[in-house]
Amino acid sequence: MHTAQAKGFIRDIGQFKVHDYAMPYVEFVPKLYNFCLSLGFSDGYMMPSRAFCSDENQGMPILLISRHFGTFPFDHGIVGGIMAIDRHGPHSTHGEDAVIIQASHVGYDPHTKTYGTCNRPKMRGECKSSSCGKITHVIEPFLQQFKMAQNRIFLHRNDGGEYLITVKDSFIDFHTSPIEDGLTLHLQNIARRTGDGAIVPIATHSTSHTYEVSEDFRRRINETGYEWQGGVGKAIGNLLAADLFSFRVTNKGGGSMLERNLIEFMPSIVTHKSPQLKAAKVNVQREFARTVESIHRGTEYNGKNLLYIAGLNLDIASYHGHPETTYFVPWAAYIQLKDSCPSEYIHPLEQDRLFQKLSEQSTINPSQISIKDEIDKMLHTPRYDIYTPR
């Protein structure tokens, strides 16, 4: 796991496991409904709410929620899988018991076993596009900066036997001209210091500086099997690890909530094999913590049964003739019971315990409705004469 540091304190993200934890929505939703019943929620009086992205491939999960909970879910989200916490109040008045399902989403192609894209069946031919598009849009500029840094930071060795790194000035956080926006190289983790602790270049060029690397950094690089070269050397490439840089964004306009959730962990996102997957995981964790805090601080759900579950929606492409589908990967759940809360629910259910609780439930839900039958009832309902007051 990679950590982010601010003012000496370490903020970490949990190990969000996907393999063996993903369950099809056709199984997840009835299990969730039965889990709510096991907690004492009232059969037929639960009001679900969802915080999903607006993509069309999130529609089937919403229909399944409608089918099993007997009503179309309240909309509790903003694009990107962000919770609209100012909607707690309206949601709390729409049912005796409250259920919230929040998920960021990411595409998965079972053919290539890769994340980040999804086939669009309403486009002619085979059309793949970003999934989640919002997450991709937010992280793409940082990915481009990272790739540029990989190609514009060089490791080399001079004739005197010194091991060096040459860095473009735009990546160096000079005291006289600090970086306000962009990638900042952590030279303190790379370069050799003088006796008084300063980091002094051994050469200055028109658009870059060269520093001698520290013994620790050279040892770290050598352990990868890297062979140092003379002259201009080689671009650092994949050796530019997440702990060697960070990003700064002034956010003069405030920035989106999604960007604010991700920016602190952007180095671990852009260096990940599947950046969109990593970003979605980070966002789910940050949103869960923010939303639980908003529930604690607010009064909207006082005296009500409430289950808030957060996780990851996997948009699975068609495979071997099978249609597109969606899987849910549970991350954590907050449970509040109106009568008394057992000690096991004082703290949120973490991923392993939550998955176990859901797995114990049946996929049979006698209370589920037929959406087709409900539409047929509407079609056979007498046409009303709508009165307009003068």
What does this structure look like?
The structure is a single chain. Helix 1 (25-38) runs parallel beside helix 2. Strand 15 and strand 16 form a beta hairpin. This protein has 390 residues and is of the alpha+beta class. Helices cover 28% and strands 24% of the residues. The protein has helices at residues 25-38, 59-69, 88-92, 133-152, 215-222, 257-262, 266-270, 275-297, 351-359, 371-379, and strands at 4-6, 9-11, 23-24, 46-51, 74-75, 77-78, 82-83, 97-109, 114-115, 117-119, 128-130, 153-157, 163-168, 182-185, 203-204, 208-212, 234-235, 245-248, 306-316, 325-336. The model has no long low-confidence stretch (mean pLDDT 92). The strands form 6 sheets. Strands 3, 4, 5, 8, 9, 19 and 20 form a 7-stranded mixed sheet that branches. The protein has a domain at 140-257.
Low-confidence spans: none
Order of helices and strands: EEEHEHEEEHEEEEHEEEEEHEEHHHEEHH
Quaternary structure type: single chain
Into which percentage range does the β-strand content fall? 15-25%
Please state the overall shape, judged from the principal axes of the Cα atoms: elongated
Mean pLDDT: 92
Largest sheet: 7 strands, mixed
Binned, the helix content reads 25-40%
